[in-house]
Design a protein that fits this description.
Strand order of the largest sheet: 7-6-5-8-9-11-10
CATH class: Alpha Beta
Structural class: alpha/beta
Shape: globular
CATH topology: Rossmann fold
Number of domains: 1
CATH superfamily: Vaccinia Virus protein VP39
Low-confidence stretches: none
Strand content: 25-35%
Number of helices: 6
Distance between the termini: 52 Å
Radius of gyration: 16 Å
Length: 223
């Protein structure tokens, strides 16, 4: 069995104990002892960016919001798709996660936080959305496990009717809301439709062509 090395630990604002560990060449973030994310499973995060940026990548100066930094894979995939004139705001609730991405996690996604197009805001993505009316061409939410919130209980409000309305208000005309989820959620899908989004549900492997578990991406266009 490979030895486990503790690289960092912190408490989220709601008191969840979070740890960054390394096991061989795998990096893992734990939340109260359970695996929240692994560096070996980021294919569906890349798919999230690809789907969300289909239209946005054709714009000269798109504005994109990513909710949840994670290990930086969603951010990296987004940056690789966008033009030099883009602005990407990353809202991350836990300051230590940002520091881990500037430290040991940085090389995994080729140091996306060093890109000049990126602005990090260490706050609840709900607050970011609420203060940016009509600002974003695309909003990508990769927070917890999606609608079934895994760590911070406050994240659940992102996926209720109010959260959907706030996300819609933050989008420009023809804006896109893309939400990553660990599993299908018919109730959330219906809430998106009720919130005046045109919704497509896509599935992507955790390791893309290499397999892994299926994850769900809710691709919603402002209607």
């Amino acid at each position: 069995m490979k030895p486990v090395e503790l690289l960092g630990e912190t408490l989220s604002p709601d008191g969840t104990a979070m740890k960054l560990i390394r096991r061989g060449d795998e990096y893992i973030i734990l939340a109260d002892g359970a695996i929240l994310m692994s560096s070996r499973l980021h294919g569906s995060e890349e798919a999230l960016a690809t789907l969300a940026c289909q239209r946005v990548r054709t714009l000269k100066a798109p504005s994109v919001l990513i909710g949840g930094l994670g290990m930086g894979f969603t951010l990296r995939a987004t940056l690789d798709l966008l033009p030099l004139g883009a602005t990407v705001v990353v809202a991350e609730l836990v300051p230590a996660v940002v520091e881990w991405n500037r430290g040991p996690l940085g090389p995994l996604a080729k140091h996306p936080l060093k890109d000049k197009r990126v602005r990090v805001e260490t706050e609840d993505v709900f607050a970011t959305l609420s203060s940016r009316l009509g600002q974003f061409d695309a909003v990508l939410l990769d927070v917890d496990n999606g609608p079934a919130a895994f760590t911070a209980s406050n994240n659940a409000r992102l996926y209720d009717n109010l959260g959907i309305a706030v996300a819609r208000a933050a989008l420009k005309t023809e804006g896109v809301l893309a939400v990553w989820a660990a599993q299908d959620d018919r109730k959330f899908e219906q809430r998106l439709r009720d919130g005046r989004f045109d919704v497509q549900v896509r599935r992507a492997r955790g390791r893309l062509k290499k397999g892994g578990p299926f994850h769900t991406i809710f691709l919603s266009h402002k209607s």
